[in-house]
Design goal:
Blueprint: H1 5-14, E1 21-26, E2 30-35, H2 43-47, E3 54-58, E4 61-65, H3 70-81, H4 90-93, H5 98-110, H6 114-132, H7 141-155, H8 157-168, H9 173-183, E5 193-195, E6 198-200, H10 209-228, H11 231-275, H12 277-294, H13 297-309, H14 315-319, H15 323-337, H16 341-355, H17 360-367, H18 371-390, H19 418-441, E7 464-468, E8 473-476, H20 484-487, E9 493-499, E10 503-505, E11 510-515, E12 521-526, E13 531-535, E14 548-550, E15 557-558, E16 563-567, H21 569-574, E17 581-585, E18 593-596, E19 601-602, E20 607-612, H22 615-623
Antiparallel strand pairs: 1-2, 2-4, 3-4, 5-6, 7-20, 8-9, 8-19, 9-17, 10-16, 11-12, 11-15, 12-13, 13-17, 14-16, 18-20
Helix pairs in contact: 1-3, 5-8, 6-7, 6-16, 6-17, 8-9, 8-10, 9-10, 9-11, 10-11, 11-12, 11-13, 12-18, 15-16, 15-17, 15-18, 15-19, 16-17, 18-19
């Protein structure tokens, strides 16, 4: 990225500095700024800047057209400006659909803690393993200390979540941290507190949802108070008022409500277990991880824990035994299959932690942001739970989590291993299903930028290369395109097509360089070295992938005529977008000439463009009537 550093600095300076940038995104050819004040941007300087093709203004965005290397420039601009690329502008946020907003929120709250969660889960598992193998006893100082190291993150999880939630919601993160710490305060957890005749007994340690909801209540209140309270006192008055209002409301309403939900669920599960253990296992196995997310799982297992502590065998605790293994198998499959180095780094400790029964890193860091994978883990959990119920597996003693829960399935007095064998069968079946399903169905997100040198050897460039039409439709010259970046051939020479059908095919043999996440544009490099951009419609990036479907991925080799992208032409047009599609040779400067071979209507596979390296080739073609 070093080679784009000076260009990025110049762009930042001439859009009015980093303080004038509200947000920054990019499409396949241009940086898309939302600026506080567009009038202070130096349009003429930017247009004449080396590395900038032109400047355009549309849709509330200040667009700096870069060309093929926009992903690299984008990253460098973010670094140099010290911005995240995220927007505080409500209009930009409204472009996200509900699902995107939800997972963006979940990711923003959970992801910063995933690494420490994974490390803590591994420590807890190793500590149990060392105790089982007799290196030290569970009463020893070593076990107590290592257990504290592994368990503290989970016990005080609301503190971490409070900080992350406040930061994500643009509130004071230390206010969120304080709210989380208050909820973990020992004197108010698991005890009867009488408020004028209204008794509350709630436990917030190791919970998830309560602190998120309380901070979500606190964030807008804090913003409002900051507006109306004088600056001289608001530094301490605002957090004081926020805590005095939000924490009691949260403690008196959210905690009891979560406990009530857990109690109802526990009672309902007892009824279902009595009616059909198999059905109960399916329901519990399918929903357990969802209950973990909402922080009501601990209440449900309290009756089971009380049974075990009293020496009574328990079915409920056994029904949960295979769920973590299904989740772990999904993450293991993703870790094996993904080529995303960042995801591999997250998935590796997550599946190791999952072996020890700690699945929060797997859920929040890997599967929940990829909802299909989370659903597979729930189905795997349902299969395992159903088998456990069918085989009447019971837990006899309190044991560890995950792998270390297995000793608790051995009947102490008779030494019977039937429950242990039943659990092993359930674990194997649920893991095999989850692993196979995840491995088959998982696909990495499409990557935007590809190293062209991997796919093309300059020595293989041909003197003349013909690019065929990727679409059926009507030919139109680039000058008629309602976008200066294309109409003035600023991005390269080429031609445009007004499509009559909604399918795009490969115009040559080559490699897919880029499939933009919104699927409205695709870049290829032919085996002969021609770099081609197919840009489907004008401003269709705003559709965010709606009505488009990609059939190829970045780095994929294609043959001429292979299906690349399909789109709903009618619905896109009804939405008010033009589907005029430029087909551009973005490395036109490498060629002596780019010659259009068609007029009027064109079918898929018809000769469209001829790319000529040498003057003699062009003269020969012209003589033969090619022009």
């Amino acid at each position: 990225m070093e080679k784009y550093k000076q260009l990025s600095q110049n762009i930042i300076e001439n859009v009015g500095g980093s303080e004038n940038i509200v947000s920054l995104t990019h499409c396949i050819t241009r940086l898309r700024f939302v600026l506080k004040d567009e009038s202070i941007a130096n349009d003429d300087v930017l247009k004449n800047m080396d590395g900038v093709v032109t400047v355009m203004k549309a849709g509330g965005q200040y667009q700096v057209v870069i060309g093929n290397h926009v992903p690299d420039v984008y990253k460098t601009v973010l670094e140099e400006a010290g911005i995240s690329g995220e927007s505080s502008d409500s209009d930009v946020q409204k472009q996200m659909n509900f699902k995107d907003k939800f997972f963006d929120l979940v990711s923003g709250i959970m992801m910063p803690s995933i690494a420490i969660l994974s490390a803590s889960g591994i420590i807890k598992g190793l500590n149990t393993l060392l105790a089982i193998f007799g290196l030290f006893s569970m009463e020893s100082a070593y076990y107590v200390l290592f257990n504290a190291i592994g368990d503290a993150m989970f016990f005080f999880f609301p503190v971490f979540l409070g900080y992350n939630t406040a930061k994500k919601l643009k509130a004071n993160p230390f206010l969120g941290l304080a709210i989380g710490a208050i909820l973990c305060y020992p004197a108010i957890n698991g005890v009867d507190l009488n408020f004028s005749g209204y008794t509350v007994n709630a436990t917030y340690t190791s919970s998830v949802l309560p602190v998120i909801l309380i901070v979500a209540l606190a964030a807008p209140l804090e913003r409002y108070l900051n507006k109306i309270i004088p600056d001289v006192v608001k530094t301490f008055i605002v957090p004081m008022i926020v805590m005095l209002i939000c924490v009691p409301l949260g403690f008196l309403i959210i905690g009891p409500f979560a406990n009530l939900i857990g109690l109802w669920l526990s009672m309902g599960l007892d009824v279902v277990i009595g009616f059909s253990p198999t059905l109960a296992g399916i329901i519990i196995g399918a929903t357990w991880q969802i209950l973990v997310i909402f922080g009501v799982h601990m209440v449900i297992i309290i009756p089971g824990m009380m049974n075990l502590l009293a020496g009574t065998p328990d079915s409920l605790m056994a029904l949960l035994g295979s769920v973590s293994f299904a989740q772990t198998a999904v993450v293991f499959a993703i870790w094996l299959k993904t080529k995303d180095k960042t995801l591999k780094k997250i998935a590796f400790p997550a599946w190791i932690s999952g072996i020890f029964g700690v699945t929060e890193p797997a859920i929040y860091g890997v599967t929940l942001p990829r909802i299909k994978m989370f659903v597979i883990s729930c189905i795997g959990g349902a299969i395992g739970g159903g088998i456990v119920g069918f085989l009447n597996v019971r837990m006899y003693t309190m044991a560890g989590l995950g792998l270390f829960s297995l000793p608790g399935l051995i009947e102490p007095e008779a030494g019977s291993l039937s429950s242990l064998y039943g659990m092993l069968i359930a674990i194997v079946v649920s893991m095999v299903f989850s692993f196979v399903a995840a491995y088959v169905l998982y696909k990495d997100d499409v990557k935007e930028e590809i190293d062209e040198d991997k796919y093309f050897n300059p020595g293989s460039r041909v003197d003349k290369e013909i690019i065929v039409s990727p679409l059926k439709g009507h030919i139109m010259p680039l000058k008629d395109i309602a976008d200066e970046a294309f109409s003035k051939e600023l991005l390269g020479k080429g031609i445009a097509i007004k499509p009559s059908e909604g399918t795009v095919y490969a115009p040559c043999d080559g490699t897919v360089m880029t499939v933009f996440p919104t699927k409205h544009a695709i870049g290829l490099i032919s085996d002969g070295g021609c770099e081609i951009l197919i840009h489907l419609g004008m401003d269709t990036v705003k559709l965010d992938g709606k009505y488009f479907e990609a059939h190829v991925t970045s780095e994929q080799k294609v043959k001429k005529g292979d299906k690349l992208v399909s789109f709903d032409l009618e619905k896109i047009t009804e939405a008010g977008y033009s589907m005029d599609t430029p087909i551009i040779v973005t490395n036109s400067a490498d060629y002596f000439d780019i010659i259009s071979m068609q007029k009027g209507s064109v079918n898929v596979g018809d000769d469209l463009l001829t790319c000529l390296l040498g003057e003699s080739t062009a003269q020969t073609l012209a003589t033969e009537g090619g022009r």
